[in-house]
Structures are given as C-alpha cells and as structure tokens.
Amino acid sequence: MNGVDAVGVLYGLEAINAHNGWAISIVGVTIVFTGLVSLSALISQLHKLVALYDNPGRIKKLFASKSKSVAKAGILKKHLALTEAQKQICRQYNLLAQTMDDVISLPKLLRMAERSGLKDPHANISFLIKSGILRADEQGYFRWDEDSFIRATS
Prior knowledge:
By secondary structure, the chain is mainly alpha-helical. The protein is 69% helix and 4% strand. It has eight helices and two strands, in the order αααααααββα. It has a two-stranded antiparallel sheet with strand order 1-2.
C-alpha cells in the first residue's frame, strides 16, 4: 500500500512530503544554527565588556581621543588658504549675510543667492560651512563668523 493503511493515514516519508515537513525542518535548523552562531559571537566578545566594566576610565579615554581629533580638524580650518575666486565668493555671501538678521537661515540664504544670480549657490554655501565662515548654532541656524571671514579674505 506504499505507506498508506486502509483508512488513508500516511506514515514515514510520504507523511513528511505531504505536510511540508522538509521546509519546516530546514527553517528549524536555520533558526537553531543562527541562534548558536549569535550566542558564540556574544560569548567571544564578552571579555571586552567585562574589561570596560572593570575599568570605566577606558571609555573616557576613547571619547577624549575623538574630541581631540575634532579639535585638530577645527585648527586645520583656520589655516585655510583660499584662491581669489573663493575670496570673491566669500565677499558676495558676506553682503547677503549682512542683509539678514544675526542668525542666518540656510534656505533663506540659498533663495537670496539664487535671486541674486550667484553661480552654484549650494556648493558655495557648503564651502562656507566647511571653511568655518558659516558656523552652526544650537537652534539649527547659522552665524557669520566675521573673524574667519577677515582671516580668509585678507
């Protein structure tokens, strides 16, 4: 009867084939294997977490080294040598910034630059931010750094 008795009940491999047993077993093996791999990765890195727990000063040193690299990047911006074309761009945007309030909204500055017919306003505003002439404040606006402007254009 090929695995089927008189009432129509399946036994053995025919029952596995008929009720998606192969797919279920493959999914189960995959889940178990993934769990074991994740657990072994966690256990292999556990010594690092214990070391940080034993010596929390290492965390402070890690963040202190990152802030020093940020400070070095700020120093590099101050010694930026500009070409004459870049100095001219700075002067043009300085005139636009003087017409605005103390805080500068980038969308408003962009619209003003487009209305004034300045070439490549997006790239130029990005250049001003990277050079440190436009500096971000905590409220999401920007301020014109007059000292950086004078240093860059002189």
